[in-house]
Write a structure and sequence with these properties.
Layout lengths: L1 H6 L16 E3 L5 E3 L9 H23 L1 H8 L11 E6 L1 H12 L3 E7 L7 H6 L8 E6 L11 H10 L7 E6 L10 H4 L5
Parallel strand pairs: 3-4, 4-5, 5-6
Antiparallel strand pairs: 1-2
Length: 195
């Protein structure tokens, strides 16, 4: 996806989150970390803590992007001005709720592209109505994305999420028939063809 957006002229940044939920990352001491799945997806306390880290990382990246003096030398673009008034966030699954939560607290974000959002982590505040979206967003949901977390109803949370949008803002949901959760990732191109 990132390459496709870049081919349309966007400057794209992809975060490898350091919250112990990514497959692999280098910690602050440059030591490799591999995902070990010791925390189950439904462990709300752990996942909520990870979400806070992810949102902080997103805000830090947006800070750096909007500071042209810091980011331009790193990118090697020379003397150009990055238009930082058109910041769009996107995410898939846990990344989708990360993008949504970041857009709640950072006014520099103008829109969101949300792919198969794993809303479980924020379902309580979505369901009670205190999760109010103030940015336009599009949700893309695959037909076979099923969240098996006990007691969690993804469709109910999606309805509440879309109902929480500030009046007059664009929001829509696109459903991809016959598609699976991994179809919106690089997994289909990285996995062996024998699978």
């Amino acid at each position: 996806m990132c390459k496709d957006y870049a081919s349309h002229g966007y400057i794209v940044f992809a975060i490898n989150h350091c919250d112990n939920s990514s497959c692999f990352f280098l910690d602050k001491n440059a030591r490799p970390y591999y995902y070990d799945n010791k925390h189950k997806k439904y462990h709300l306390e752990t996942r909520s803590a990870q979400l806070k880290i992810r949102v902080m990382e997103m805000k830090a990246l947006i800070e750096e992007i909007t500071d042209n003096l810091t980011i331009l030398p790193k990118l090697g673009f020379g003397k150009i001005k990055i238009t930082s008034d058109k910041v769009v966030v996107a995410g898939h699954s846990f990344g989708a709720i990360t993008a949504l939560k970041t857009s709640l607290i950072d006014g520099r974000i103008k829109a969101g592209l949300i792919f198969d959002p794993w809303l479980y982590v924020s379902s309580e505040i979505i369901d009670e109505g205190s999760f109010v979206m103030e940015r336009p967003f599009i949700t893309t949901l695959t037909e076979h994305f099923v969240d098996t977390t006990e007691g969690f109803d993804l469709n109910k949370s999606l309805e509440k999420l879309h109902a929480s949008v500030k009046k007059g803002l664009h929001h829509e949901q696109v459903n991809l028939k016959t598609a699976y959760h991994t179809d919106q990732t690089d997994w289909s191109t990285l996995s062996p063809l024998e699978l």
